[in-house]
Write a structure and sequence with these properties.
By secondary structure, the chain is an all-alpha fold. The chain contains 21 helices and no strands. It has 4 domains: 224 residues, Growth Hormone, Chain: A (Up-down Bundle); 57 residues; 189 residues, Growth Hormone, Chain: A; 56 residues, no CATH class. Helix 14 packs parallel to helix 19. The termini are close together.
């Protein structure tokens, strides 16, 4: 076991074994045990997104109404994540974690038996609230259980388990909705949640050091920053609604979006000075003043923009432009997930051996080059082209997430791990929300632009246009279409091809934009403190 002095010389916060949740058990078993719940929640999100069309049809509602099944989940999650560190500190980390898993499991059952949209949305809100603190608590457990020297491998092993959710989600969701019913997208969580509860109860301890810290915090009574909670809840819930519904509701052409935007801005303006002046803030934003932690949070936000944005719109590209089925689009994404899993152990090993900043810079370069490669997509790409492009992007992810997470804890106190994990998850999820909203808005605006430019030359005075319509009409007649109807059918096909081309050009524009964001973020690494592996000494124990 590396002692505190050695850990500090490595550029990491001091670590003591009395905070480990493993007790006398093998700490590596903890990685698998605490990963199960997050695997369940990540799998649930990706499965449900695939099943929304089926949910809308089954409950006799529009797709727009059914999309609130996802939106309300994200809102509830966004509200809980910032306060999950405080909840874990006050309730006890293991107690809070098991309560969240139990609540998620029970809510999943009610989602599966819901007979109408209102009940389903209510159950999804409970699900989202339960899911909000799981990843943050798991991350803080790993930080407390593993010394800095071994944290890279621990995060890599954790990532291998969790990344399986996005790999299996689209494929499993497509199979379930095609061969069973959408209800099983939720009911499948019940046995997984029960297994998680049993394993956490048996294998995870509540360290004595954390019990003492909790008792010390509660001396003199429970003090909750109610105003801080209200402000952060208003900020994240209204921000989520604004970003998630903005494009569909024509942004500031909608009174609802105007109202949520105003509430978002006002609550943030009030929230920051309020939290900075509290002795016991519900969200310790002072931690962002730590140079490494603040910059790591910014980079995690930018990473969320890139990863969540592309994870959403690459399957969208394959399905809407190239006519892939949901299952095949999921398989193309799964290829990237496999690449990530294979690269995870390498990332974990390198994190403890070289300066994390170099790994992160290399990972951002890989992301930028991958997006440059995707910007050369066209309507003639094959499944192989799409899958290998995603693999190229995905292979760099472990060299981004693992060292960035490790670097964020440099200089933080061990007792700050719960709050730090919560804030980092806020940054990543907020980045994901911004990324998805930005991508969808850019896609819509650029598609309108490209369509208007392409239509400019499509008129009877253009010989290529008339020749093309005539050729299509001739082909239709040769295949049995009535001669009188062939020109109209030909025009429809021609217009469809034009729309497809406009859509592809808009995706290319988004890839270019994300590439610029990636390369522009690399200089931020120069401002961070690096990590250096210990030059002498061995761990003992």
């Amino acid at each position: 076991m590396a002692d505190a002095a050695q850990a500090a010389s490595a550029g990491n916060a001091p670590w003591t074994p009395d905070r480990s949740v493993a007790g006398k058990r093998n700490p590596w078993a903890i990685v698998a045990v605490v990963s199960i719940a997050t695997f369940m929640t990540v799998l649930d999100i990706s499965i449900v997104n695939v099943a929304l069309n089926h949910i809308a049809g089954s409950l006799a509602v529009s797709y727009d109404e059914a999309s609130w099944v996802s939106t309300t989940f994200l809102i509830a999650t966004a509200v809980v994540i910032p306060i999950s560190g405080w909840l874990a500190n006050v309730l006890g980390r293991k107690r809070y974690y098991m309560g969240s898993v139990a609540m998620f499991t029970l809510a999943s059952f009610f989602c599966g038996v819901a007979g109408n949209l209102d009940l389903l949305i209510l159950a999804r809100i409970v699900q989202g609230a339960a899911a909000g603190g799981l990843a943050a608590v798991e991350q803080s457990m790993l930080v407390d259980t593993f010394p800095p020297k071994k944290r890279g491998m621990a995060f890599a092993a954790y990532g291998m388990v969790v990344i399986a959710g996005p790999i299996l989600g689209p494929v499993l969701g497509g199979w379930i909705t095609d061969n069973a019913s959408w209800q099983w997208c939720f009911l499948i969580n019940v046995p997984v949640g029960l297994l998680s509860l049993v394993l956490v109860h048996v294998f995870v301890d509540e360290p004595a050091a954390l019990v003492r810290e909790r008792k010390k915090r509660l001396e003199g009574g429970l003090k909750m920053d109610v105003i801080g909670f209200v402000l952060v809840a208003l900020f994240f819930s209204c921000l989520e609604i604004t970003l998630d519904r903005g494009q569909e509701d024509d942004w500031f052409g909608s009174s609802t979006i105007v109202a949520t935007t105003v509430i978002t801005v006002v609550s943030l303006i009030l929230f920051i000075p309020w939290e900075l002046t509290r002795k016991s803030p519900i969200v310790p934003i002072r931690m962002l003043g730590n140079r490494n932690f603040g910059l790591a949070s910014v980079l995690l936000l930018l990473t969320g923009v890139i990863i969540f944005g592309t994870t959403l719109f690459i399957p969208q590209l394959l399905q809407q432009v190239l006519d892939y089925t949901a299952t095949n689009a999921g398989l193309a994404l799964a290829a990237g997930g496999i690449a990530t899993i294979l690269a995870m152990p390498i990332s974990g090993l390198l994190t403890s051996r070289i300066d994390a900043r170099f790994m992160i810079a290399g990972a951002f370069v890989i992301q930028g080059l991958a997006l440059l490669n995707m910007s050369h997509f066209n309507t003639g790409i094959s499944f192989y082209d799409a899958a290998t492009a995603r693999m190229f992007q995905a292979v760099g992810l472990p060299f981004l997430f693992v060292p960035l997470t490790n670097l964020a804890y440099v200089g933080l106190r061990p007792e700050d791990s719960n709050q730090a994990s919560a804030l980092m998850n806020v940054a990543r999820n907020l980045g994901g929300t911004i990324g998805i909203a930005t991508v969808e808005t850019l896609l819509a605006r650029r598609q309108q632009f490209h369509q208007s430019r392409l239509v400019e030359t499509l008129n009877p005075l253009n010989p290529n246009y008339t020749s093309g319509i005539g050729h299509i009409a001739h082909q239709l007649v040769s295949h049995g279409q009535l001669a009188a109807a062939a020109p109209a059918q030909g025009l429809a096909q021609f217009y469809g091809a034009m729309q497809r081309q406009a859509a592809m050009l808009s995706y290319v524009d988004v890839f270019h934009t994300l590439m610029i964001v990636v390369f522009a973020s690399i200089p931020l690494l120069a401002l961070m403190r690096g990590t250096r592996p210990p030059s002498t000494g061995r761990s003992s124990g």
